[in-house]
Amino acid sequence: MAMWQGAMDNRGFQQGSFSSFHSSSSDEDLMDIPGTAMDFSMRDDVPPLDREIEGNKFYNSGGIASSNRIMDFLEEPIPGVGTYDDFNTIDWVREKSRDRDRHREITNKSKESTWALIHSVSDAFSGWLLMLLIGLLSGSLAGLIDISAHWMTDLKEGICTEGFWFNHEHCCWNSQQVTFEDRDKCPEWNSWSQLIMSMEEGAFAYIVNYFMYVLWALLFAFLAVSLVKVFAPYACGSGIPEIKTILSGFIIRGYLGKWTLVIKTITLVLAVSSGLSLGKEGPLVHVACCCGNILCHCFNKYRKNEAKRREVLSAAAAAGVSVAFGAPIGGVLFSLEEVSYYFPLKTLWRSFFAALVAAFTLRSINPFGNSRLVLFYVEFHTPWHLFELVPFILLGIFGGLWGALFIRTNIAWCRKRKTTQLGKYPVIEVLIVTAITAILAFPNEYTRMSTSELISELFNDCGLLDSSKLCDYENRFNTSKSGELPDRPAGPGVYSAMWQLALTLILKIVITIFTFGMKIPSGLFIPSMAVGAIAGRLLGVGMEQLAYNHHDWAIFNSWCSQGADCITPGLYAMVGAAACLGGVTRMTVSLVVIMFELTGGLEYIVPLMAAAMTSKWVADALGREGIYDAHIRLNGYPFLEAKEEFAHKTLAMDVMKPRRNDPLLTVLTQDSMTVEDVETIISETTYSGFPVVVSRESQRLVGFVLRRDLIISIENARKKQDGVVSTSIIYFTEHSPPMPPYTPPTLKLRNILDLSPFTVTDLTPMEIVVDIFRKLGLRQCLVTHNGRLLGIITKKDVLKHIAQMANQDPDSILFN
């Protein structure tokens, strides 16, 4: 016999307890468990959750010699019972039920004594204390990463002789020999050509600086990929696709562990400093979630409940975005809109508090020395005009097209990496991409600088004191009213900068496709924003010059008079950045809030909204998935997208296993199977659980028992209960079945039986089944007809069916 073909075929045991409402199957590829042997050891990154076994848990020995003897073997927690295997989905209903029982017990006890009342108050306060600790730790690590990355980025170009720990800007702060025009040059800062050859100018000095730039970039990239490969393979990538999957209830042991946190923090600095086209903002969400997961182990309330832990991780994700962009409110909305699967009101408040504490901590550290939380904070004061919505919408279209193009090409490249020999050589791939990036980046000052500095330069609103080439305008005016500079003709520096920015745009578009997804920490927020900011600045300068030279045109003469400050190119860069980021991630509300928190101006919400919505519409027209959802599907994670509607008219009987011509479902009977029979079924199958029926003839459903609980219970009974042998009868009923004299003791396993598994009839529409799986977080439900068991539908079956209906490869779903 075979049980639900494919969907429950796995190589792992699903852990659970008698109070489970449903079980799940394990990873088919990563866990190999021969026969009934089982390894309960866990990574020390995430220790097993020691579940308290509630209620009366005991084995009842049957037979004439011990018919009335009750063995309380399950009163003590058994290692492994109630926890989950790697690459499995948690039981949301069971976890929430356990938390309600725990809370009810604490509330009842609080009326009995003062100590119990204090314990109740501390339990209620523990959530807020945990949020405080997460905010403090996340903010501190973000400040450390910002300071280190800034210093190591400058290290590629030179070193401070006053103190090697100073970056370029800090080195020249107190110098008395800095001129306004050459504010970046000071005697204390030496380029590598000065340090090695005592030469500052000339072809040979340029070659030395070029060589040292590429050498440092390769060294940083090599260290990053080597540390990830050797110590923490989970530290690579953005982390947001996996965070989304974990928050939906999936278990990935070690992904949020202490080694992952340490290595991700170190390698994130190295990866950003190498000059690759990546950002630290996405990985900061992963870092914050690692902080949340580790700190959860200090509190039993969260350590022992996977659903409660996911509420904490949602708040930690908000804190991560808060320190990444200096946007606490945007962080909360990002967690709500983009990553969280279950987000109750209580989690909203705690997310807000965690984001607040994290932002306050980062502000106290002041990593950039400008009292701002990000390098590219900017303020605009010039109002925008209605006609400008046209170029803003054009930027939205560009962002949508770029987003769709990037997702398709990046997923195609990542799939090639997974399915070819390329994926076996991550170090060589990283070094090749780093070498190409560094060689092409050095000659162009806009690609040589860090991406955050580039965005800051593009967002900048030119003033009289700006010496940047982007602000090299011809000053044909006497005074400027209210301190605002009028639109001016572009000088040679602006035209030179436009060509360099156009080349930078091409390089960023191409190289980011190959960079995102490599085996190093790599965020996508900053490269996407850079692409949009470059396109926006180019368009903004074009609009500015058009308005200056043709202010008498009908489209300009009503609101742009000669000598007025009409167009702000920096605003176009900001709108373009929002459009491209929205096109790649499909964020809308949280994106707009993050961008206006960056600029400190509410009056630009409408342009940002117009660009964000346009980019989403255009990108959705070309492909429904954002980059994170696409990577979730590429990795085969069991993520049921709540935003998508299931519109097909299939029934439960079309999806359930076994199908019409398949072998019958493997089941256990309630009182007629021996220990040997059960152990044989366990050894010959790889299913994660078994329906229990009255008899094979009637097929009337009694309940559902998890494979892991069966193995643990039988092994425990053999060790602690005298007389249990292979011929002992296992029964799941309330009372022991009548047994002939001198038979071995029976084994009562009713207390590990789920007596209320979720069931649907065979004629239930699949749209209802999909909704049940989404809203209740089920892992499987049983299918019945007139009370008789017919089959089973797992979460993996549902995902495969959805993929099949969408003309996608159903075998891409690897886990349940």
From TrEMBL:
Which keywords annotate this record? Answer: Antiport, ATP-binding, CBS domain, Cell membrane, Chloride, Endosome, Golgi apparatus, Ion transport, Membrane, Nucleotide-binding, Repeat, Transmembrane, Transmembrane helix, Transport, Ubl conjugation
Q: Which CDD domains match?
A: CBS_pair_voltage-gated_CLC_euk_bac, ClC_3_like
Membrane topology per record:
Multi-pass membrane protein
- Which compartments is it annotated to reside in? Cell membrane; Endosome membrane; Golgi apparatus membrane; Membrane
* InterPro entries cross-referenced by the UniProt entry: CBS_dom, CBS_dom_sf, Cl-channel_core, Cl_channel-5, ClC
User: Organism's domain of life?
Assistant: Eukaryota
Q: Which GO cellular component terms are attached?
A: apical part of cell; cytosol; early endosome; endosome membrane; Golgi membrane; plasma membrane; synaptic vesicle
**Any single GO BP term:** renal system process
Keyword NAD set for record: no
Gene Ontology MF: a single term: ATP binding
Catalyzed chemical reaction(s): 2 chloride(in) + H(+)(out) = 2 chloride(out) + H(+)(in)
Which positions, given as ranges, span the membrane? 125-145, 203-225, 312-336, 386-407, 427-444, 497-517, 524-543, 571-596
Annotated CBS domain ranges read 656-720, 752-812
Please report which protein family the annotation says this sequence is part of: Belongs to the chloride channel (TC 2.A.49) family. ClC-5/CLCN5 subfamily.
Q: What does this protein do?
A: Proton-coupled chloride transporter. Functions as antiport system and exchanges chloride ions against protons. Important for normal acidification of the endosome lumen. May play an important role in renal tubular function. The CLC channel family contains both chloride channels and proton-coupled anion transporters that exchange chloride or another anion for protons. The absence of conserved gating glutamate residues is typical for family members that function as channels.
Give the quaternary structure: Interacts with NEDD4 and NEDD4L.
In terms of PANTHER family, this protein maps to:
CHLORIDE CHANNEL PROTEIN (PTHR45711), H(+)_CL(-) EXCHANGE TRANSPORTER 5 (PTHR45711:SF7)
What is the name attached to this protein's record?
A: Chloride channel protein
Species of the source: Octodon degus
